[in-house]
Amino acid sequence: MYPVLNNCRVRGVDGDFFLHQFKKGEEFSLEKLHAEILWHCNGEYSLPWISKKFSQPKKDLLFFFNVLKEKDLLTFNKKKNKINFPQLTKAPYLQEIQIEVTGQCNLWCKHCYARKEFQKATEKELSTKEMYEFFDQMTNLNISKCFFSGGESFLRKDLPDLINYLSKKCIGITGIFTNGTIYRQDIIDALIKNQLKTTFLVSLDGYKPEIHDFIRGNGNFKKTISFIKKVIGQGFRVTVNTVAMKQNVKDLMAMRSFLENLGVSRWRISIPREQGETIVNKKLILPPWQDIFIAYEELLHHSLSSPGKMKIQLSSIFKTEFLKTKTYYLYQESNSCCEYKKSSLVLASNGNLIPCPASIDIPLGNIREKRLEEIWYSDLTQSFKTLPISKTDCRNCKIKDYCGAGCRIIAWKIHKNILAKDENACPLYHFFYKVAMPIMEKYGIHSKTLEKSSPYKFNANIINELLLKNLREKEFKKL
Q1: CB contact at 8 A, 355 and 347
Q2: CB within 8 A of 265, min separation 6: which ones?
Q3: How far is it, in rounded angstroms, from Cα 273 to Cα 271?
């Protein structure tokens, strides 16, 4: 009898192992011994062999395996039939990659953070073959999941082929970002064929055509609503992403009811970043902070007192899951400024690997020139990912434990210094500290401090040198 994992893989590193069901996106924490045992459940090793290898009684192993079998995570083969598992990797673990499959977009949105950069990236867009080669490198690093984004992801003609290839490599496709104006059944069919529980993250900036279409162009509200209904009708979850702007900030409560009735699973509201088209249209679309705070406080009260089926996330300060966990997390000085994206990278459509979506013009390396593994473990990348709060100019601020020193990319764009303050984050987190936190505490939701980060030889100089080099090159091209 040969135990073999069913549609799942052992992921992570020592101290943070988990069993990942890549089709459903489920994760189960593992102790080191359990992780090592399950890594050998690849159809090559028999139950007696595993028992002897790990000095575990066959009876105990059989009980453990049967628990997994009941959850459809493991099966037993009568004959040896090996499946090649990727080796367990060294720390730090790269868990996910957001793949910008194209820089092309069919809309011209008034708040797009990187329209020019997306357009430029299309000039050297990765081919299907290059994408496959990159997916192979992702497999070698045992990466568990990815997201597709753009531009507009549905404009990539070979997207069904990319879905099929990733599924064969046992990498989960957690979500697909889209503006919802293009519906392609071939993409839906590829997800269904591979039994993937992918979420569609759809941009919708108002619950009425006059609001949404003002931002994204006439006729697009109707297309996006039709898209949402179609994918929900085929059994997929939809997360709606909304940017709070002058045009919609006073209608967010009404929009909540509209989305709930539509069957949306999750609603994420964010505030415009002062990047790209938002800077151009700043006076037109940026709402006063006070209007945002009024809307957020109303949504917070309603979400806590009447949660409903649809989960809600208000920027980075609240999400409905807090009601279940009764916990929100605070930073320590040793934590990195962006714990949220600490274990991820973004692949731009031209092959550049960048730290996060906001850092669109800050390449850590290009996969046509370097391998993913080399870029991920480099001092440059890890300095970005482990930049501690204690090194920033926010280190003496009383609310640093709540904001984590804000966004380093925005800090750079404002001050040309990666360690400077991100003043854009200050109003939101003062609101959190003074208003949102006391409200949550009334509902039994309290803070818990993140674990201390592992020490790393952080080097701010190599980050600032890269950013200054990019800036000089941009200025030279303008001459």
Answers
A1: no
A2: 199, 237, 238, 239, 310, 311
A3: 6
Q: Name the nearest CA neighbour of 2 among 39, 34, 35, 44.
A: 44
**β-sheet with 311-314: strand ranges across:** 318-319, 311-314, 266-270, 237-243, 199-203, 172-178, 145-149, 96-100, 344-347, 352-354, 365-366
As a residue count, the chain comes to 479
Cβ neighbour number for residue 380 with a 10 Å cutoff: 18
Residue 335 is which amino acid?
Answer: N
Residue with tokens 């539509």: 262
Residue type, 9: R
Neighbours of 255 (CB within 10 A): 22
Q: Work out the number of other CB atoms within 10 angstroms of the CB of residue 457.
A: 8
> Cβ distance 11 to 144 under 8 Å?
yes
**What is the spatial distance between Cα 18 and Cα 339, in angstroms, rounded to a whole number?**
19
In the three-class reduction of DSSP (H, G, I as helix; E, B as strand; rest coil), residue 313 is classed as strand
Cα–Cα dist 173/200, whole Å: 10
pTM of the predicted structure, to 2 decimals: 0.94
Q: Which residue's structure tokens are 């189960």?
A: 28
**Helix extents (H) in 312-423:** 322-325, 372-376, 379-385, 400-403, 408-415
Whether the Cβ atoms of residue 346 and residue 355 lie closer than 8 Å to each other: yes
Asked if 461 and 446 count as a contact pair (C-beta separation under 8 A), the reply is no
Residue type, 216: R
> Coil, helix or strand for 268?
strand
Higher pLDDT, residue 131 or 413: 131
Residue 162 is encoded by which pair of tokens? 């990319």
Question: Residue 306 is encoded by which pair of tokens?
Answer: 């009447």
| Beta bridge partner(s), residue 238 | 200
Q: pLDDT per residue over 42-83, tens digit each? A: 999 999 999 999 999 999 999 999 999 999 999 999 999 999
User: How is residue 403 written in tokens?
Assistant: 């904001």
Per residue in 104-119, pLDDT (tens digit) is 999 999 888 877 788 8
Instruction: Choose among 281, 248, 286, 285: nearest CA to 267.
Output: 248
Strand partners, 27: 20
